[in-house]
Amino acid sequence: MKTKKFGLIIDSRLEDIHKVSTAVNNFCSQLPLNSEEIFGIELCITEAVVNSIKHAYGNTPGNHVEVELKVYPEYLRIKVLDKGLSMSPLQLEEVCEPFVEVESDGVGGVPTTGRGLMIIANIMDDVSYYTKDESNALIMIKNIRLDREIIT
After folding, report:
1. Which CATH number fits the domain that encloses residue 40?
2. Sequence-separated (6 or more) residues with CB below 8 Å from residue 88
3. Which structural domain, as residue segments, surrounds residue 111?
4. Helix crossing, 35-51 with 17-28: angle to 10°?
5. Tens place of pLDDT for every residue, the chain, 152 residues?
6. Is 152 within a domain?
7. Global pTM?
8. pLDDT tens, residue by residue, 130-141
């Protein structure tokens, strides 16, 4: 099987998120994935790009956010790269806890922001983060099997 790759660079503007979402959906629709899997991948990539724009670049336009997807026989590897402020690796470790504890007052104990990494950690099979040579990379792995039939 020939390796499939996809890459996209956008400006660090929230109004450009739809470009990422549309392109990722189109790319993933060419793979043997069901609609739920495609939605989950698209959601995770969108959340990661939003985090780069908001947190790494402080909502300042004029910077690049890069998305790379590479398909392997058993998994899809996604990289979201930026050159903004780096995230503490501890942030990723904290959200990988299996449960969010809710206070007895119900939804009042659930945070209203900062859930993007939690969504990513719960949908993806592996998530890692590193900073090297002034570039930050969030790596997401989604296990897939390209030789299966899709039942929708």
Report:
1. 3.30.565.10
2. none
3. 4-143
4. 150
5. 566 899 999 999 999 999 999 999 999 999 989 999 999 999 999 999 999 999 999 999 999 999 999 999 899 999 999 999 998 877 766 666 554 555 555 555 555 455 788 899 899 999 999 999 999 999 999 998 766 554 44
6. no
7. 0.83
8. 999 999 999 999
d(CA 10, CA 141): 22
User: 21 near 122, Cβ under 8 Å?
Assistant: no
Task: Work out how many domains the chain is built from and give that number.
Answer: 1
* Model pLDDT, residue 89: 72
Provide the percentage of residues in the chain whose pLDDT is more than 90: 67
Backbone angles phi, psi at 94, to 5 degrees: -65, -40
The beta-carbon contacts of 59-62 under 8 Å, at least 24 apart in sequence, are 59/12, 59/14, 60/12, 61/11, 61/12, 61/13, 62/11, 62/12
One DSSP character per residue, 17-66 reads HHHHHHHHHHHHTTSS--HHHHHHHHHHHHHHHHHIIIIISTT-SS-EEE
Q: Is residue 150 part of a domain?
A: no
Residue 61 lies in a domain: yes
